[in-house]
Specification:
Layout (H helix, E strand, L loop, with lengths): L3 E4 L2 H6 L5 H9 L28 H19 L18 E3 L2 H16 L17 H6 L9 H4 L2 E5 L7 E4 L5 E6 H14 L5 H6 L11 H22 L3 E4 L1
Parallel strand pairs: 3-5
Antiparallel strand pairs: 1-2, 1-6, 3-6, 4-5
Length: 246
């Protein structure tokens, strides 16, 4: 099943004026592309009420996004050091990548097992990986996770400096978990330093060939790590949100 990661203005995301990896591939081959969300496997992502009808007019969507951002900033209050702000203009860049559910789930479990080394890492990604014991322990209210912006079911990362994750509503009114792009980038670097200890060139090479469906959990995790790290760096450099698309 497809899982894409979108980095860019939320106005562009909600108006559908962007292409994921599948869209680009289909356009390149002359096939018809579909922008409908892919079904997600069991245990792969949070669910919420169906999204509200999305108007396609960019000005209308932008106004909705800006109202949502202002309300979110007010709700966070002095827990954030600066007002939420990023470019929602049509000229702002966007970036996409496809770690896939197998890759993303493997990366999440890789981080959870790094925090609980006494547990035995599975060789391949379990079908219902959100029920994995290491991940459950990393999400315990009493546990302080080193990789909270990765393992705690985050679906949207904002370009702001916060160490915590929190539950809120997205632009469509769905309940989601929100984190920080800056903090996620630091936690990905910490995960590499604690486990693979790969140099930048080696880590970048992991994204050049997607692993097969029967690849080991570690190979899947490495691929997703490389894809995610590249996208999160773009988000931090350009001060843009990151959103899972499925």
């Amino acid at each position: 099943m497809a899982l894409d990661v979108y980095v860019g203005p939320l106005t562009r995301y909600y108006t559908g004026e962007w292409e994921n990896v599948g869209d680009r591939s289909a356009r390149g081959s002359g096939a018809a592309a579909s922008r409908g969300p892919a079904d997600s496997p069991v245990g792969s992502a949070p669910t919420g009420r169906p999204p509200m009808e999305r108007p396609k007019d960019a000005d209308v969507v932008r106004a909705r996004v800006l109202d949502w951002r202002e309300a979110l900033g007010r709700s966070l209050g002095d827990r954030i050091a600066a007002p939420l702000d990023w470019d929602e203009g049509a000229a702002a860049p966007y970036f996409t990548g496809r770690p896939g559910w197998d890759g993303f789930g493997s990366l999440v479990l890789w981080a959870a097992y790094a925090e609980h080394p006494a547990l035995r890492l599975p060789l391949t990604l379990p079908e219902a990986w959100d029920d994995d014991l290491a991940l459950i322990r990393s999400n315990s209210e009493t546990f302080r996770s080193r990789y909270s912006h990765l393992v705690r079911n985050v679906e949207l990362w904002l370009p702001c400096e916060v160490r915590f994750v929190f539950e809120g509503e997205d632009v469509d009114g769905r309940r989601i978990v929100v984190g920080s792009a800056q903090t996620l980038l630091g936690q990905l670097a910490d995960l590499n330093a604690a486990t693979w200890k790969a140099g930048e060139a080696e880590a970048q090479s992991w994204s050049r060939r997607p692993p097969t469906g029967d690849a080991s959990l570690e190979l899947q995790a490495r691929y997703a790590f490389a894809v995610m790290t590249g996208l999160v760096r773009q988000a931090v450099e350009h001060r843009l949100p990151i959103k899972l698309d499925y």
